[in-house]
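Example with several molecule types.
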Amino acid sequence: MTTSGKDPVLTSFEAVAGQEFDVVIVGSGVSGAVIAKQLGARGCRVLVLEAGSGNDITVADYEESVQRFYGAQGKDNNSAYAKSRNAPMPRDYETRKLQPGQPNADGYLVQMGPLEIDSTYTRVLGGTTRHWEGKALRMLPDDFRMRSLFGQGRDWPLAYGDLDAHYRAAERELGVAGDVEDQQYGGLDFGPGYVLPMRKMPLSYLDRMIARDLDGMEVTLSGETFPLKVRSTPQARNGVPNPAYDEGRGYKPVGAVSTHQEDKGERCQGNTNCVPICPVQAKYDARRTLYAALETGNVQLLAWSVASRLEVDGVTGQVSQLEFKTYDDPDAPGHRVGHVRAKVFVLAANAVENARLMLASDLPGSSNLVGRNLMDHMYLLTWALMPRPAGALRGPICTAGIEDIRTGAYRRHHAAVRYSIHNDGWGWATGSPYSDLEHLVEHENRFGAPLRQGLIDRVSRQFLMDCMIEVLPDESNRVSVDPRWVDQMGNPRPVISFGATPYTLETAAFSRRLSRRIFQRLGAEDHTHYDPLAPGYVSHDGEGYVLRGGNHWAGTHIMGTSARDSVVDSTQRSWDHPNLYLAGAGSMASIGTANTTLTLAALCFRTADAILAGLGTHAPASTTTGARA
Amino acid sequence: MADMLDGFLALSEALTGFTGQRLRGTGQAEAYLATATGIVGEGVMRDLLLAAAEARASSGGDTEKHEAELRRLVMSDDRLGPVARNIIRMWYVGSWYQLPKPWREAHGQSPRDHDHVVSPISYTEGLLWPAIGANPAGAKPAGYGMWAMPPRIAPG
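Resulting C-alpha cells for the full complex:
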C-alpha cells in the first residue's frame, strides 16, 4: 500500500499524475470494485479513481455517516452522505413538476421531462451501493430475449445461461441471503443443488399475515393464469450462513469494512434503514469488495478526483489517456488537472455518469447511442391499512414479494412487473410516520394516551406494496450534455430526458387494479391516492398515477451484437475503442423486473475475465506488489 | 431553568402519554426544555408550565378532566397551544418544527425557529417508534429475525 496519501490505503495526485497503469478504473462502486478486485488478484496494476471522499474506509468514518443521517431533518436516500460542490450528486427532493419547455436545473441533474424522475445515485466511496436497499434478484431467462419472445425491446447478445457462473460469483461477492426453493418461478434456474451463501431473511410478521390470506389468489393475464404466492426476497444482507453452500464448505459472511479489526456487520439486526444506511454494516456495500481489491497490494485508490475527459487516438481509436481533476476541499473552487495512461480503461461510474463522461469527451459512439436507451424501473406505489396492527416499521425494508407474474405472454402487450411488501410502512408514498404524527397532533388534536393509540391504529397497520414496472430501451430517453449546464469544476452536468410509454403505463393501470383486489382479499383499508400536482403524475386511459424512480439507471451504453446498433459487446467492451470498457447497468439491454446490481456485478465478473484474457498477451504484471507511490 | 424541569416533565407526561420515568430515560428532557425555551422565551415557557400545573391541580387526578382542562388552558390557547404541540413533536420524533406564522407574528421570531433535529441522539430517542413496538429507522434494532414476531406494543 502507498503511504503518501492522507490514509494508508490512498494514493495521491503527485504519485499518480503522468503515470501509466495496466488498468485505470473510473468509479469505486460495485462495478469498479469487482473488476479491480479480480484484476488486482491476478497481479494487474490498477488505479481506481473516485470522485468522492476517500475518508470512508474505517468504522469511525462510517459512524460519521450514520450520525449525519440521524441529524438530518430530511431523511432522503442520500442524507447520510457528505455533499460536495466538486462532485455533486442528485437528491430526490430536487425533483419537481415540470412545465412544458422549462427544464428543472435546480439540482445536479438537469431534467427535461416530459416525466420528472426522482431517481438518484451516490458519488461516494462504494458508490450507490452505500444507499441501495440490497435486493439481489436474478433477471429471468426471458428478460434476455425480449425481442425474440415478445417482439418488444431488444435481445441481449448473451443468454441467461451464459451468465450463470457470473451470477454465482456475484452472489458470493455480495453475500446473498435467500432460499433457492422460493425462487422457482418464471423459468428461473440456479442449476442442480445450488444454494445461496446465506439462508433467507426470515419473513416479517406483515409478510406472514399477508401470505395467510393471499397465497393461492389467481390472476389471469393474456389468457394465462398465475397463482400468487408471497416469496422471500434474496438480498445482499448478512444472515445465517448456509452450511450447504459451496458443496458443503459453507460461507463466512464479510463484516464491517475497516482498516482495523472490527466486530460489526455480522448479521442484520432489523434496523429498518437499509436505505440510506445500515448502521451496523450488515448490508453489502462495495467498499467490502474495494477493500479486498486494495488488500491485493496491486490496486491503488485516488479519491477526491473526478474523471473529466477521455482522450482518443484518432487513428487507432484507442483511448490514450484520461484527464482527471483532483480537489482538496469538497466545496471550495479549485483543483489540479492530471492525466493517467493505461493499457485498458474502464468506466464504472454508473449509467448516467459513464454516458456523461463519454459525451463530455465528444465520444457519442459510431452508433450515436451513447446516453440513449436510458432505462430505470418505474414504481407505482399502493398503500392500505391492515385490519389490525401488523408490526410496520420493523425488519429489513423488504423481506418478501410477489414474483409470479414477472414474465408471461402478456409481455407482448405490456410491461413485466413484480411487487414488494414493505416493512417500512407508507414512508415512501406519504412521508409516514412523520405525516401521521402531524395529522394526529395538528388535525385530530390528539395528545397523551389517545395520541399513542392513534399511532398504533394508523402506523402499525400500514402496508405499502410497490409495483416495480419494467421500462423498455427507447432511444428518446437519454442522458445528454449541454454547455449551458456545468458544475463548479466546469464538468458538464447530466441532462435527463425521460418519458413513460403506454407499454409501461398499461402495467401501472393493471397493477393498481390488482392492488385493489389484493386489499379486498386482505380486508385492508385502501388509502392509495395520486396527487395530480406531484412530480411523476401521468394519465393513462383516463386514470391518473404517480410514477417514482427506482434509482436503477441503465441502458446508456447498451450492449449488442454490432457497432451499428450498440455501444458495447457482451463483455462490455466498447465497439469503437478497443481498450475501453463501459461497465455497469448502462450495458444492460433490458432491465426486466430485477434490481440491477446483482446482474451488473455478474457482468463485471465477465468483464474482468475478458480484460485478463486481453492483457494475457501483454503478460499481466503479476510480480508487481503495488508499492508504487 | 433547572427549576422548570419538573414542571416540563409533568406537562410532557400529559402531552405524550408516556410516564415521567420513560421520558427521563431518554435523556432528552433538558435538551427539549432548553430548545423550546431558547426559541419561545422564558416568559412563554413559564406561562405554559403554570397553565399545565393549573390543569393538573383542578382535575384532582381525573384523567378525562385533566385532558379537558389541558384543552381549555393550553391546547386551544393561541400562545401556548402551538408550543405544546411542538413539545409533542420533539418527544415523538426528536425534531423542532417552525412555529406557525401567526404565532411568530404575534409572539416573536427566533433565529433558531426552523425545522431541525434537536440532536442526532434526540432522533434515536424518538417515542413514536416505541409507541408502536418498533425502532426508529437506523437505531435500536430488536435483533435478527425479531421482525417475524408480532409487535410488542406495551404501555410505559
